[in-house]
Design brief:
This protein is mainly alpha-helical. It has 9 helices and 4 strands.
């Protein structure tokens, strides 16, 4: 008898509850087990992963690029519906995100023998550029070792870095935006072949910093420095429409 299959099929037609519905039960479970050492460790590990996931979602949602060797003017967007945040000011958006990150507690550094779980949501526009017709959301789960040295040695691609490499490099980034961008460009070098030609400085900076910002886990303080440096790259702008 395959008990796990029976368990999955028992109520397969029931919709998956959202986070709001699960939050009260999760909090009661955490409070009831607060004295247990294992539960505390699991909570800490989950917090590290959650910080990284939020970072990736934030970058994907609020940023777009119009990059070249020269600075491109930012395009004005609609007034924000949340407080007084000006969406036509990339520096204001990114610096406010950095302020919020700096208030978050730092989670424990992952161990080399741990794994990272990802669940990626994908949706495609089937209509015009306004996304009026969208395909159903699909989810793609995945697991990768935190210390994925074997993949790094096999050379998956020029930009591949293990999660451990990115985590440690991000923690060592300086506060000064110009120095930070220079170090990230060195961490993710530009191309030098016909298939991968060199980039302009602004384009290289944004590509490299985007790779690090979308990686996880990354400590909140390190991600805050990344956001502040991103705000100084010529051509960075906020999208002119809300993103769901």
């Amino acid at each position: 008898m395959d008990e796990m299959t029976q368990l999955r099929e028992l109520r397969a037609d029931v919709p998956v509850p959202d986070r709001a519905a699960l939050a009260p039960g999760r909090q009661r479970l955490i409070e009831a087990a607060a004295s247990g050492r294992r539960v505390r460790r699991l909570r800490a590990d989950w917090r590290v992963a959650a910080v990284g996931a939020a970072a990736a979602i934030t970058v994907a949602a609020v940023l777009g690029t119009q990059l070249g060797d020269a600075a491109a003017p930012s395009r004005s967007g609609p007034a924000s519906t949340a407080g007084t945040l000006r969406l036509d000011s990339p520096a204001e958006v990114l610096n406010r995100a950095a302020d919020a990150l700096e208030k978050q507690p730092a989670g424990p550094q992952p161990r080399d023998d741990q794994w990272i779980y990802t669940r990626t949501a994908q949706v495609a526009s089937l209509g015009g550029p306004d996304g009026s017709s969208l395909s159903p959301v699909t989810y793609q789960p995945g697991w990768v070792p935190y210390d994925n040295s074997a993949a790094a040695e096999n050379g998956k691609d020029d930009d591949y870095r293990t999660a451990r490499q990115v985590y440690r490099a991000a923690n060592e980034l300086p506060d000064d935006p110009a120095r930070l961008l220079a170090e990230i460009r060195a961490f993710y070098p530009t191309g030098h072949t016909a298939e991968s030609p060199p980039e302009g400085k602004a384009q290289h900076s944004f590509r490299a910093i985007g790779l690090m910002a979308e990686a996880y886990p990354v400590a909140p303080a390190a991600l805050a420095r990344i956001y502040r440096a991103m705000a100084t790259i010529p051509g960075v702008r906020v999208t002119d429409h809300l993103v769901k």
